[in-house]
Every structure is written in C-alpha cells, then in structure tokens.
Specification:
Strand order of the largest sheet: 1-2-3-4
Structural class: mainly beta
Number of helices: 3
Mean pLDDT: 84
Distance between the termini: 31 Å
Largest sheet: 4 strands, antiparallel
Oligomer: single chain
C-alpha cells in the first residue's frame, strides 16, 4: 500500500505529516495525514530502519547498512548531515538499529553490534559513546546475562518525560525509564510478570507519557 515495500518505523511532524522508513526501498516516505504521499527523502540511504523527529521537525534516521545516522533538517532537505562523518575521529558505528530524541533534542542511538547506547547533541556532536552501562541495562532481564547480544537485539527506545528515554525489551517483557541528564534509572514502568507481555515498540504522547 502507498508504494511502501518494507516500512520500518513511523513518526509524525507537528504539521501533521507522517514519515516512515522504507527499509527495502532504501528511503523515507512522507504522507499527508489523509495518507497521500507527498515526497520521498534519502536517495543516499541504503537500509533505513528507525527514525525520530526533533522539536524543530528535523528527522533523525538510523541506516543499519550504511552504518550511519543522518539528520534531515526538513522534509525538503536533500543533503542530510552524517553523524558518522561529523564525528569520524571519535566514532565508528557498526549497526545503528534504534534512535530517539530527548525532550531537549539530544539524540540517542542504539548500536546492536557495539552493544551500546550512544549520545549526541542536537547538532550531532558525540557526547557519550556509552550512555547506559550494561550493568544498568541488565535490570531489564532481572538477572545475569548468558548472552550479551540478547539484551540489545530486543530493544526499542523512545522519548520519555523530563529528559528521559524509555527502553522496551520485547523478549524480557520489561520497560525501563532512564534519565539521560543524570545518567540513572528512574523506574521500571513494566515489569516482567507475564511471559505473554512482549513490548516490541514503545511510544509516548506529546507530554512524554
């Protein structure tokens, strides 16, 4: 439908346009709220897999095949900013598979090969290459990790309230709230009480809840 081949990730601008990654087509598609396709972005992308929108309507996209995260400053931007290139002396992304922005527009990227959360400023400058230590993330599993990769492969992230992010783990059935500024766990919103609970994606309302 709508010319999509393999949609992966969706976000909405304040003006109402809907944006989705098309992983297999290697681009972004922008739709009106009624579902009419307005434009296609990112001809330089290869396999975009996740996106987030900042308060200024900039679009942050993770491309797992290019091993990069790029920023489109508007839906008419044809020359996105590469965070890999901007931070080439300090950064070497391997498989960015998740991205979100905080309430202050800092950019958080999950790299499943590096097994790290990476933090950037809203301008795209690297702030931390290990935002959340593994021992903190292990709270999602309620125990010791047998396979480190399993912790990262089932994660999804989104903006939370007051500068925090929410981290969901589908296999473990847990959602954690993490304060990016103070670098601490705020609370576990959803605990793994039922094997049927598998949060495969997390999202918040405009107030971050």
């Amino acid at each position: 439908a709508y010319g999509l081949v393999e949609p992966s990730g969706v976000a909405m601008l304040e003006t109402g346009e809907i944006i989705t990654c098309d992983r297999r087509a290697g681009n972004l598609k922008v739709f009106t709220r009624e579902g009419k396709c307005l434009t296609t972005l990112g001809k330089s992308l290869i396999r975009p897999c996740a996106l987030a929108v900042t308060s200024t309507s900039a679009i942050v996209v993770a491309d797992e095949a290019k091993k990069d995260v790029v920023i489109f400053h508007s839906i008419s931007d044809r020359k996105p900013l590469s965070l890999q290139r901007l931070n080439s002396d300090r950064l070497d992304l391997q498989m960015p598979c998740g991205v979100c922005v905080t309430s202050t527009d800092q950019i958080v990227v999950l790299d499943s090969v590096l097994k790290k959360f990476v933090l950037f400023s809203k301008e795209g400058t690297l702030c931390s290459d290990n935002l959340i230590p593994k021992e903190i993330l292990s709270q999602l599993t309620k125990g010791k990790l047998n396979k480190a990769a399993s912790l990262y492969q089932g994660l999804s992230v989104c903006k939370g309230p007051d500068g925090s992010i929410l981290i969901g783990h589908s296999a473990m059935g847990s959602i954690l709230q993490y304060d990016v500024t103070q670098r601490r766990v705020c609370r576990e919103i959803l605990e793994n009480h039922s094997p049927k609970t598998k949060p495969c994606a997390v999202a918040t309302d405009p107030d971050g809840y």
